[in-house]
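Notes from the 1:1 (GR / supervisor)

We went over the backlog. Supervisor wanted to see one worked example end to end before approving the batch request, so GR pasted a single chain during the call. The sequence is below; no edits were made to it. Supervisor asked that the structure be written out right there so they could see what the output format looks like.
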Amino acid sequence: MISFLKSLKRSFITIYRQYIHNCDTSQYDKRVIQLGCPLSVDPRLIQLDDYTRIQDDVKIISHNLPVKIKKYTAIASGCLIIPGTHIPTVGIPQFLSIAHINDSGTGITINEDCWIGAECVLLNKCEIGRGAVVGARSVVTKPIPPYAVVAGSPAKIIAVKFTIGQVLEHEKIIYPPNERMSERELKELYDKYYTGLRSIGTSDISDIDIVKLNNSRKEFGIKDYSKL
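Structure output shown during the call:
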């Protein structure tokens, strides 16, 4: 009976630490959508821009390194984000890695308008470029260029999100002029990474979906910069 009560106490402590104690989201704008209070790290290490969405059971594990998630980005259920790593050190057993001696890392940035699929793992040194798509259960260990579609373990580029023309159209709508990528930048990017790869995106939206989109823009206060 005593053993059972001790086990039950440990379970309550774990739940409290993971889902309640570190779940102070009062600093975030109301336009940040968090489902299931997923943060399992000191919220002061997390920068969430407006219009970001994090689904349930996302874990961000960091001792003292920042994670930045920029606007319009969505992170699906079950993802794991670890912005640092332990360096094996002579004389220090792995059990004492909790002392964080010789830890290494610079943090992780997920840029604007990214989609991180379900149960992905983002590890130290990775940065997700603007507009990138990371396929479900991928393991990302290095920087991903803008508008790449990646998948696998380790994640590799398998496609591109839009054509150059679609990117120009897309960014004209969702970003103000000073935040848009130029056609020249895009051509250099596509020549370097996406020659011969297919595009997965579309410009087609039905009349019914246009109404839904406009209603959603109004609900969250998201501008259509092409109409300003």
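Supervisor's comment: The chain has a mean pLDDT of 85.
Batch request approved.
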